[in-house]
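Posting for a labmate who doesn't have an account.
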Amino acid sequence: MRHVIAAVALAACATVLAVPATSIAGESPGSAAPKHPEGAPFEMESFQLVLLMRAPTWKKLPEPEANTLQSAHLAHLGEMWKLGKAVVCGPFDNQQDPTFRGACIYAVKTPEEARELASKDPTVKAGQLRVEVVTWWVGKGFMAFPKTPHPER
């Protein structure tokens, strides 16, 4: 799963400042932002990376049903975007593991909030997809989403 998260990170922003893994080793979930390894001031901000995975209950649907569900899925993602919750979303392609279907970056404070919002997706409710959420720390200001409405988070 780490290789997929790394690929999403690289695809989402080509110039994110890299933080060595040693600087965040041992940080517990929900802990404060990682410290810069040299102790220098290093402002960070967090996003919630939502991975949409094929659910164990996934089944091939008849085309009309699949199309209706896909339209509802896209409408849900559009609503999350309009609310400024999901700042970027997209499907995966050419992945080695076909259970990885897509990802969204949610600009919300907690993984629980992202999980709750993503779980309202009709494809998740229908048992076609499941949700994995991780908090992703990046250098403050390195991630920008100029096309997304940004209400206060």
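Reply:
Got it, the structure tokens are right above this. Strands lie at 44-54, 86-91, 100-106, 129-139.
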